[in-house]
Amino acid sequence: EYVSSKTINKVIQVHDRIFCCMAGSLADAQAVIKTAKFQLSFHSVQMEDPPLVIAAASVLKDLCYKNKEELQAGFITAGWDKKKGPQVYVVSLGGMLISQPVTLGGSGSTFIYGYVDAKYKPNMTREECLQFATNALALAMGRDNVSGGVAHLVVITEKGVEHVVVPGDKLPRFHDE
Amino acid sequence: MLGEAEPQWLSEEVKTGTTIIAIEFNGGVVLGSDSRVSAGESVVNRVMNKLSPLHDKIYCALSGSAADAQTIAEMVNYQLDVHSMEIGEDPQVRSAATLVKNISYKYKEELSAHLIVAGWDRKEGGQVFATLKGLLTRQPFAVGGSGSSYVYGFVDAEYRKGMGKKECQQFVINTLSLAMNRDGSSGGVAYLVTIDEHGTEENVILGNDLPTFFDQ
């Protein structure tokens, strides 16, 4: 397996308070997100209001579902809107859209289902959440040979958006390292 | 009804989909397994004990093809009996693991089973050996089977050196429960075997007594 880059950012902004994580074929995912970003900004101009997170997720879902034969891309859409506050949606490969409090995706996710199930609790603070996500990514990167490099995290709140980048050597270490 | 197709489970290979785990603590080992045996999409046995004794204080955990795994365990059980009579004392865990490894390696193209061997002996205390595909390696803990993929992150995060017996048992139960929740080929009840110098203890934890997590 060839590693073409170790620093790709797979967390893309599609609107002020809405971000998408890409998984699967990154080429397909990039193409879909580009289309979705355009449709979303047009939608937001028409509504004269920032788009709802579910609107962003639905746009992605429509694209994935209608082109399911050609595409191999899945997304996690997360953000904040005025109506429902913070939300997380996942659009799977075939175009299913569901809302979940916590969700994982990508090849490395299989290794951390157990960890997330055990450690996630609702209503964590921002710091607890960041630590939880960083730990989960570090564990997955430690076991999945095609995940690695740098961890990109984005914290989205009503007030704004903050990027946290954790290089591989600063990630938390566990017993066998 | 004309020409009903035979049920899928009659033509599918029987696999112990499985989650198995063994962990060493100061003075012994704990082995754990789920109890589901599947043939294709059917569960053909929901209460199978996949922790098989090789000797009084040496057990192995079975995964992969049910027939292959059981056969290896039975062969090694016999070979270990003969060996222990020849040396006149209880066999070492490493000997049992080596016998398993020899079969797994020699027939690696034909067999598709992975056995984790764990036990206690007077010389080295509690030991866990993994024998995947004919490799022999001693590890502080080992996980195996289809369900193990889902809990690598959990065991990496939670394992600590120097855990006591009760902590290890709880660690095994938690790990099995998490894996059984996510893996379609693992489920049923959890079997536990604890081996130390005083003896061997077998336990079953029924479905509703298993720990639950945030989304249950």
Overview features:
heterodimer; A: 177 residues; alpha+beta; five-stranded antiparallel sheet; two-stranded antiparallel sheet; 4 helices; 7 strands; globular; B: 216 residues; eight-stranded antiparallel sheet; 13 strands
Describe this structure in words.
The complex is a heterodimer of chains A (177) and B (216). Chain A has helices spanning 26-47, 53-66, 113-119, 126-143, and strands at residues 11-15, 18-24, 73-81, 85-91, 97-99, 150-156, 161-167. In chain A, the strands form 2 sheets. Chain A has a 5-stranded antiparallel sheet with strand order 1-2-3-4-5, covered by helices on one side. Chain A has 177 residues and is an alpha+beta fold. Chain A is globular, with a radius of gyration of 16 Å. The longest helix of chain B is centred in the middle third of the chain and has 22 residues, at 66-87. In chain B, helix 1 crosses helix 2 (93-106) and helix 3 packs antiparallel against helix 4. Chain B has 4 helices and 13 strands. Chain B starts with 13 loop residues before the first strand and ends in an 11-residue tail after the last strand. At the A-B interface, helix 3 and helix 4 of A face helix 3 and helix 4 of B.
